[in-house]
Amino acid sequence: MIRKFDFLIIGGGVAGMSYALKVAEAGKGKVALVCKTTLEEANTAKAQGGIAAVTNLELDNFDKHIHDTMVAGDYISDPEAVEQVVRCAPAAIKDLLKWGVNFDKTEKGDFDLHREGGHSEFRILHHADDTGWEIQRGLMEAVRRDKRITVLENHFAVEIITQHHLGIEVTRRTPDIECYGAYILDPDTKKIDTFLSRVTLMATGGTGAVYATTSNPNIATGDGIAMVYRAKGTVKDMEFVQFHPTVLYNPAETHPAFLITEAMRGYGGILRLPNGEEFMKKYDKRLSLAPRDIVSRAIDREMKIHGLNHVCLDVRHKDAEETKHHFPNIYAKCLSIGIDITKQMIPVCPSAHYLCGGIKVDKDARASIRRLYAVGECSCTGLHGGNRLASNSLVEAVVYADKAAAHSLAHVSEYQFNDQVPEWNDEGTMTNEEKVLIAQDVREVGQIMSNYVGIVRSDLRLKRAWTRLDLLYEETEELFKRVKATRDICELRNMINVGYLITRQAMERKESRGLHYTIDYPKHAYDQQEG
């Protein structure tokens, strides 16, 4: 079946929904928002801490936020991208409020601002400890109210359509690659339909599920990045994978691991060994409020030195009722596994959390492929550089959704639907034995990435990952060619592609910088003992 939409949006988190609302409001054509599960399951909903914006001009200013972002990014960040996001952040907050999102306020009616690691001022807007869910809720309700947006849940994008599908050779040197839409799997018919579009926006989120333990949901398999890479688009900075220093250590839950928000350390939480010893003083003068890469490496090292599965976060010294008030979901979750955080320390460990790289885009969120935009975690705007500053990602998504909407609305009339696109060839069958192999391969990708391409890397580990991923790639591509495409095998292909990109770009960076830390090119004297 062939379907036509002027604006095709792939992904239903804050990035995709913000863009959908903007272009729908302009009334310049039909809008489709496609997501592979339901809107409720987007990665946005898992964000706890908050969203960063300069709103208190008496204490804070744009220059401070810009400086904090550049420092956290190890000065790899694109200064123009940083300035654009920071200066546009207050307007993004106004958009969210307009769409029905609520943020906590003080008794005086001002925003109740938090401070998180790497921030020099209190500038984090939040909604208790479930800010991401509140943003997702507000945007979902706005999207579902807007009859101009066609929402297609449980639809899986298999590939974006370019000249390649018209029989024209496309390479990474082809200067004028164009996107004509996407091939999308319908869950009811089990067939792959052809979605033609004038403009396509990729908002497919992150890649955490390629690691064995992650704060991301299982759906974070890097689909958009893999699709654009296969279409010969530019992908950048994939080596910079952020590991959140503190997820709840609970071996029963690995996907997603429960996040213990950065705001808990901003609130006064102290990282300790299980015996009560405070250890961050050995690594950074900012102690438990150091940026995430430093904290994650410190925890990783302490766990290795002492043979531990976890360290602890301690808020026992804080007022119990205040702790329950600020962190009701964390309190309830920990209590459900027998830990009262007002009386006991919280067992925590690092976990794959956020990708700073992705589909390379310009200031208008345009990818290297014409008529294709990318927003949110799947994109690489240049904002994050070598390491994302806490709570910058949600605001980046809203700002760049606005830029993508403005640019695409100004140019959509220049593009035509390409009616020469052939329909997908859906021959083949899938046996139960093949399904078992796919499940095994998914687990193997997670083990490879966590063991060899994790917080601490080396040339030997990266080469080992490369070799094993290459074998999985060959086996999976051979299987994909002879079976009917299903979400399972498509996600596996994407995970292998993403794992390969992270590994290859990590191998190419011959230094320790930001989130990429290798023992072959150590940066600090105390790190040279790491192994």
Structural write-up:
- The chain is of the alpha/beta class.
- It contains 13 helices and 16 strands.
- The strands form 4 sheets. Strands 1, 2, 5, 6, 7, 8 and 15 form a 7-stranded mixed sheet that branches.
- Strand 1, helix 1 and strand 2 form a beta-alpha-beta unit.
- Helix 1 (14-26) packs parallel to helix 10 and helix 2 (62-72) crosses helix 3 (79-98).
- Mean pLDDT is 92; it is low at 524-531.
Order of helices and strands: EHEEHHEHEEEEHEEHEHEHHEEEEHHHH
Overall geometric form = globular
Cα-atom radius of gyration: 22 Å
Largest sheet entry: 7 strands, mixed
N- to C-terminal separation? 55 Å
Task: List the total number of helices.
Answer: 13
Helix content: 25-40%
Q: What is the strand tally? A: 16
| Strand residues, percent | 15-25%
In round numbers, the mean pLDDT is: 92
Please state the oligomeric state of the protein chains shown: single chain
List its traits.
seven-stranded mixed β-sheet; alpha/beta; disordered C terminus; 531 residues; 13 helices
TL;DR of this structure?
With about 525 residues, the chain is of the alpha/beta class. It has helices at about 15-25, 60-70, 80-100, 130-145, 225-230, 265, 290-305, 320-325, 330-335, 390-410, 430-450, 460-480, 485-510; strands at about 1-10, 30-35, 50, 125, 150-155, 155-160, 180-185, 190-200, 235, 240-250, 270, 310-315, 345-355, 360, 370-375, 380.
